[in-house]
Amino acid sequence: AILCEIAEEAAIDILVESVCAAEGNFLTTMSEALFLVRSLSLPNLYMVYDIYHSAMMGEDPAVVCAACTEYIKTVHLARNVDGKRHYLNGESQAIYQPHMEELRRAGDNGEVRVDAFCTNGLAEVLRESLAVMRRLG
Q1: Which candidate, 49, 90, 88, places its Cα nearest to that of 71?
Q2: Torsion over CA of 78, 84, 90 and 96, rounded to 10 degrees?
C-alpha cells in the first residue's frame, strides 16, 4: 500500500503479476492476484496478465478474462520451451489465440509484450515474434 501511495503522487500505476508455481510460490494464479488487487482497493494498483504463466498453471482464459479484464493494464506472452520463456513462433499462435480472443471479447485492447529470453539469433526470433503478435491481433 505504501508503494502505491508514493507512486500515485507521481501518477504511476503499480502492476501485480502472478507467476507460475515453477517460478514462484506467492501469487501463482490470476485469481490470487485479483484477490490481492481487489482486497487492497487502491486507485493505482492493477494487474499484468502473463499468459505464459497463466497457461502453465492451466487457467481457463475465459474465466481469467471475465474476472480480471478491468484490472489488466498489460499482457505478457512467451513460448514455453521446457519450462523456460522463449520468443514466439508459429506454435505460439495456436496456444495463445484463445487467450487473445477472450481478452478482446472482454473489451481489453491494451498493451501486449513479449516477455522472453534469447541467447542467440535475436533478430530472427524478434521478426518471428512480431509476425505472430500481428496475427494474434
Answers
A1: 49
A2: -40
* pLDDT tens, residue by residue, 29-43: 999 999 999 999 999
One-letter amino acid for residue 97 of the chain: Q
Q: Which three cell numbers stand for residue 50?
A: 502473463
pTM over 0.85: yes
* Nine cell digits for residue 105: 471479447
Instruction: Provide φ and ψ at 15, rounded to 5°.
Output: -115, 135
* pLDDT, tens only, 69-113: 999 999 999 998 888 899 999 888 888 899 899 999 998 877 899
Q: What is the dihedral of CA 125, 127, 130, 131, to 10 degrees?
A: -110
